[in-house]
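Good day; I would like, with your permission, to put a structural problem before you. I would ask you to consider whether the tokens describe a fold that such a sequence might reasonably adopt. The full record is reproduced below for your convenience:
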Amino acid sequence: MKNYDLIDEAVIDADHDTVWDSLIEELRGAGRWWVPHNTFAPLSGSPDRVGGTVRVTVHLRGADRTGPTLKFVSRTLVCEPGRLLGVEYVHGVFRGPSEFVLDPLDGGRRTRLGMHFRARPHGWLKPLARMAPIDVEHSRATRAAFSSLARILSEDHALPGGGR
């Protein structure tokens, strides 16, 4: 069986609280920076609370186009605000853990945001995973999302009053 163990990171020119708030907003469905690749919809609780569940939809052709999607549900296992969000994929096409880790850099002026995806395909995705470069596409989409977040936070910071 194919198992993924991927780490994608980006350095963002914003403090870790701002990056954390943006991550949680996105997981609550804001659709600001992970779109068009992924969209998120809370199912129960909140993604920043242990036990909160979120439906993740990966749009293979983009959220604004029709086409195949990969759907799965994450449940929050660990939440250390501003530092760590640990989830487990419990339903849908992936199973297994994933973590978002935030590390303050440069005296807190910048943040390293990392995602450690350690999941395995499940159901109909298992045979496809033997042939398709899902790991490459996952990392490409994650890095694109992190770049989008960095750009948005940079633009937000440039606004009068520094904000959103």
Remarks:
- The chain has one domain: 6-157.
- Strands lie at 6-12, 38-44, 53-59, 69-80, 84-92, 94-105, 110-117, 120-121.
- The chain has a mean pLDDT of 93.
